[in-house]
Specification:
Blueprint lengths: L1 E5 L2 E8 L4 E5 L13 H5 L3 E5 L16 H14 L5 E6 L1 H12 L4 E7 L10 H16 L2 H12 L6 H12 L3 H11 L15 E6 L6 H8 L5 E6 L6 H4 L1 H17 L5
Parallel strand pairs: 3-4, 3-5, 5-6, 6-7, 7-8
Antiparallel strand pairs: 1-2, 2-4
Helix pairs in contact: 2-3, 5-6
């Protein structure tokens, strides 16, 4: 268990294994535990670094506005703190958004980028978008985090044999700091870097569950905007693919990282 400080905030991270550095960044309302099924498999070949995003897990939860750019700056500070040089980066959901921000701002700091069930923008455009956002925003303010965690667990892990995952999700969600959780949710809505995707020159893997919140077609659209990207769709999976299809996910990521290592960037 290690900490470093950035702009007065103590940020928690964990390290496993040896080799080229690989950062794994979790989603909204989660923590390093998003990656518990990945760390053993990946740490056999890589130096795996798993941070808790500001406002999450064991990191500080300062009373301030959060932003995706701010979360990305924390990642840059962690890389500099550990003197890592260029890294492999994998992010789930909000962690993927942080990855996109990091990649367009600091393309030279990346060896490869993996985006899991995420997008390069969350724009509220139509009346329906606004209504969907307002509904979520209101529910999150009205309901307890324990209630939200139970509902999320049921949605993400609906199968009878996923009872343990449902229970874990409910327990973990209930431990969130509500104010930090809402501030992180607010950081996502309206954010976007889609118009800057051509800056991302490193090999990019986009992983989409076949039953993610947003359709596979959305990922196909932005994959076409990335200079060196491929899309892999994982069957029988929902938003938390690393947890509900760990073996398939680990194989997919390791195969991609092996090719990214063989073809380092020209510059």
């Amino acid at each position: 268990m290690a900490y470093f400080e950035h702009e007065g905030c103590n940020l928690h991270y964990e390290e496993y294994g040896h080799g080229d550095p690989l950062l794994l960044v979790h989603g909204l309302g989660s923590s390093t535990l998003d990656w518990e099924m990945q760390i053993p498999a990946l740490a056999a070949q890589y130096r795996v670094i798993v941070p808790d995003v500001r406002g999450h897990g064991r990191s500080d939860k300062p009373r301030e506005r959060y932003s995706i750019a701010g979360f990305s700056a924390d990642i840059v500070a962690l890389i500099e703190h550990l003197k890592l040089g260029p890294v492999h980066y994998a992010g789930l959901s909000m962690g993927g958004m942080i990855g996109f921000q990091f990649a367009v701002d600091q393309p030279q700091m990346l060896k490869s980028l993996t985006i899991v069930n995420s997008a390069p923008e969350v724009k509220v455009r139509s009346r329906d978008d606004y209504w969907q956002w307002f509904k979520r925003w209101s529910l999150m303010r009205l309901l307890s985090l324990a209630t939200i965690g139970k509902a999320l667990g049921a949605k993400l892990f609906p199968k009878p044999e996923q009872a343990d995952l449902r229970q874990k999700m409910a327990e973990r969600w209930a431990k969130n700091d509500k104010r930090a959780y809402l501030a992180s949710f607010d950081a996502i809505v309206g954010w976007g870097v889609q118009e800057r995707l051509s800056r991302i020159s490193c090999p990019t893997l986009v992983v989409s569950a076949d039953r993610d919140y947003t359709p596979v077609s959305l990922k196909e659209t932005y994959v076409r905007l990335l200079p060196d990207a491929r899309l892999v769709v994982i069957a029988d999976s929902r938003h938390a693919t690393p947890l509900d299809q760990p073996e398939r996910f680990n194989q997919t990521l390791l195969a991609f990282l092996a090719t990214a290592d063989i073809h380092p960037q020209d510059h």
